[in-house]
């Protein structure tokens, strides 16, 4: 199963649309996960309109309507792998072990908030994933999203997908 992972879209403040490659990746996924900071219900509706099912949590800048509709954190299972989603995973120091304690049944925790893309895996296979942001790169070189592949026998592969080049030119699907 292909899971497209985004976070921190911050619409409409960060523009009117996702980068073209992000749209393509979302549309071709089996599931979309948004790790918070959509900002408003229109954004949530736009992402749901892409087609695949959407699992999302609210973030710290989401308005009251989004907070009323989405949980602060959630867990679900795909292909025998338990996946947790939360917006703010806290400080970088100790994050892997802290998230392992917070979500003991999960094999993967997806989070956002920092806009810093990250894939980190513990010795036991526990994986944490931050997709960065497709619209607000902050101090990162490029806008990013992530893809999580969950295969038979609990096989996992996480990838950070750069959505533009260092000059800010949007990438197309290769």
By CATH, the superfamily comes out as: Metallo-dependent phosphatases
Per DSSP, the total helix count is: 4
- What's the shape? globular
Question: How much strand content do the residues show?
Answer: 25-35%
CATH class: Alpha Beta
Would you spell out the secondary-structure blueprint of this structure?
Layout: E1 2-6, H1 20-28, E2 31-34, H2 41-48, E3 54-56, H3 64-69, E4 73-78, E5 81-86, H4 95-102, E6 108-110, E7 118-121, E8 127-130, E9 144-150, E10 156-162
Q: How does this structure look, described?
A:
The chain is of the alpha/beta class and 174 residues long. The protein has a single domain (2-162), classed as Purple Acid Phosphatase, chain A, domain 2, CATH 3.60.21. Helices cover 18% and strands 28% of the residues. The protein is built from four helices and ten strands. Strands 3-2-1-9-10 form a five-stranded mixed sheet, with helices on one face. Strands 4-5-6-8-7 form a five-stranded mixed sheet, with helices on one face. Strand 1 (2-6), helix 1 (20-28) and strand 2 (31-34) form a beta-alpha-beta unit. It is globular.
List its salient traits.
globular; 4 helices; five-stranded mixed β-sheet; alpha/beta; 18% helix; Purple Acid Phosphatase, chain A, domain 2; 174 residues
Question: What is this entry, summarized?
Answer:
By secondary structure, the chain is of the alpha/beta class. Helices cover 18% and strands 28% of the residues. A five-stranded mixed beta sheet has the order 3-2-1-9-10, covered by helices on one side. A five-stranded mixed beta sheet has the order 4-5-6-8-7, with helices on one face.
